[in-house]
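ARCHIVE RECORD
Type: protein–small molecule complex
Small molecule: uridine-5'-diphosphate-glucuronic acid
Source of inputs: curated submission
Record status: active
Notes field left blank by submitter.
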Amino acid sequence: MKISVIGCGYLGAVHAACMADLGHEVVGVDVDAAKVALLSAGTPPFFEPGLPELLRSAIASGRLSFTTDISAVREATVHFIAVGTPQLGESNAADLRYVDAAVEGLLPHLRDGDLVVGKSTVPVGTAARLAELVRSAGSGATLAWNPEFLREGFAVKDTLAPDRLVYGLAPGDSVGERLLDSVYASALALGTPKVVADFATAELVKVAANAFLATKISFINAMAEVAEATGADVTQLADAIGYDARIGRKFLNAGLGFGGGCLPKDIRGFMARAEELGVDQALSFLREVDSINLRRRGRMVDLVTEVVGGDVAGKRIAVLGLAFKPDSDDVRDSPAIDVAVRLAALGADVVATDPEALETSRRRFPDLNYVASVDDAVRGADAVALLTEWKTYRALDPTLVGSAVATRAIVDGRNCLDPVQWRAAGWLYRALGRP
Ligand code: UGA
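STRUCTURE (tokenized, with ligand):
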């Protein structure tokens, strides 16, 4: 199948490389010439395990190319829209200008039988509007909505072997369904469940899934607040309730909460859309999900303040982790970087490190003090704040780190260390939702 992918950011670059890996001929189109140059050289402009190798082999095979020239899509039959839908500056709603521009940019190049496939996360109702735009342009092309569920850090695996495929199709669009079946033939052959639905359902599946995940995290973080007031241990509580298969242990890790480019803006966009539809009451609980999540960041700052004796001003705080989660260099709405910035604003001498997110952090917050290694971060520290649970941080040796710091005090913002081991090595260990 000949495929074009409009938008080569996180989603688009991964999708383009994976589709080429599956044997399709793919052209990725982006307005950012610097991004296109990097991708054409086989270098992703962001950190994602496995992607550089995949990109290079797909380019070498001749099946993958990148360009800024939208007319290159003429070669393709299936056109994926993979541009961003960030939160609008002035409200909770999603900014659709990039999606609209991508579809409008495609229109002059579409031919009869082409399929435009939306992958971006959009407010329900967008696909129907865009399908009408494509139809009224008169090329004979049609539109489908096929939401994406990939996780940063696992993006390649999630794209090549998704846990489900959702096709949002216009009534009776069997041509669209057949084209998508050809695109995803290898996943379907592995038995991947396929849900064929109308546009609204397909759009809602995506935001409902992210809203559910966000709710699950905030639920356990709410339990962490109660645990803190009672001396209970939220990690044991999560283990115990997680054994119930109806609840499940995944996404029950209490700590600093969720961030990134998806969960926070998606729940806000969902609430904004519900309000427009007159069903805001149905989603008012998401406001609480958002507040619980944001409260954890304040609590983390309070705990660091507590362990250094009540005032962080002038105290040297080692910050371990800046990315919104491990195996990513993404710092969009990162709880870790938020805490680091707040501590610095309170006068702390913050020394921050991260295995991959130093550059992305520096671009957003140039005034923080960044160092390349844990050794440099912890040297002479009055307290250590562990904010992203990178594997290397989970494996830190408390005795070794203890010999470098000024005071053995650590706040584990991700409940990823063994309190017994750290306390045995003479540390004051504090965590969110744990005695
Ligand atoms: C999320 C969804 O998991 C994907 O399914 C979805 O496709 C994607 O958004 C998207 O809409 O594009 P992602 O943003 O990569 O993926 O990150 P998650 O793995 O969901 O983690 C989100 C945040 O929740 C992170 O900050 C993580 O640290 C936090 N988290 C996760 C917790 O605090 N506790 C947990 O138990 C799990």
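CURATOR ANNOTATION: The longest helix spans residues 199-230.
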